[in-house]
Amino acid sequence: TATTSADGAFTFSAVPYVTGRQFLASTNFGGLNYSSDLLNFDRQWAIVNVQLTVFRTTADPGVIQVEQMHISLTSDPNANLVDVAEMFVVSNNSDKVYLPSSGPALEIPLPSGATALNLDSQRQCLDLTQAAQSVQLNSPIRPGQNATQFSLSFELSNVSPRTSEQNFCYPVKV
């Protein structure tokens, strides 16, 4: 642990060199954790410039847009089921991290009758969780285009006639 000087510089002393050891710089700003890329040192480097960008926060959901939404439907007539796979690419159109004052960062409603929900395995239980009739993204969304993406799948009954509807609280780019 080190504290930065007024110009942001910091020093670690008496750290033994170990081949292959990697480092990163991290900080907490506004209640959020930030970290640099992994740093590799060789014995010759005494000074390394590290880029660690932090952002202010906004609770305004108007900065969020679903940039891409892909839906794949596969019908199984023998089981009277439709497998639905959805992928979302979300942008934060501001220069601040989107962090709502309460609740999840995003809530994607599931259509009525959705069963057998599967969440993106790399994010499941970390920041993508199932609620009663929705999927919730519980991590802040950094600024920028295509700031986060995730996928999910579920099944719907394929009893004729079948209609399904999903309403979104965020604009979806078409």
Structure description:
It is a single chain. This protein is 0% helix and 41% strand. The chain is built from no helices and 13 strands. It has strands spanning 22-23, 26-29, 32-35, 39-40, 57-58, 64-76, 81-92, 97-98, 106-109, 115-119, 128-130, 134-137, 144-157. The strands form five sheets. A four-stranded antiparallel β-sheet has the order 6-7-13-10, with no helix packed on it. A three-stranded antiparallel β-sheet has the order 9-12-11, with no helix packed on it. A two-stranded antiparallel sheet has the order 1-4. The termini are far apart.
Q: SSE layout and pairings?
A:
Elements: E1 22-23, E2 26-29, E3 32-35, E4 39-40, E5 57-58, E6 64-76, E7 81-92, E8 97-98, E9 106-109, E10 115-119, E11 128-130, E12 134-137, E13 144-157
Parallel strand pairs: 5-8
Antiparallel strand pairs: 1-4, 2-3, 6-7, 7-13, 9-12, 10-13, 11-12
Q: What structural class results from the helix and strand content?
A: mainly beta
Radius of gyration: 22 Å
Shape: elongated
Largest sheet: 4 strands, antiparallel
Mean pLDDT score, rounded? 85
Number of strands: 13
Strand content: 35-45%
CA distance, first residue to last residue: 47 Å
Strand order of the largest sheet: 6-7-13-10
Order of helices and strands: EEEEEEEEEEEEE
Helical content (DSSP H or I, runs of 4+): under 10%
If helices are DSSP runs of H or I spanning 4 or more residues, what is the number of helices?
0
Stretches with pLDDT under 50, minimum 5 residues: none
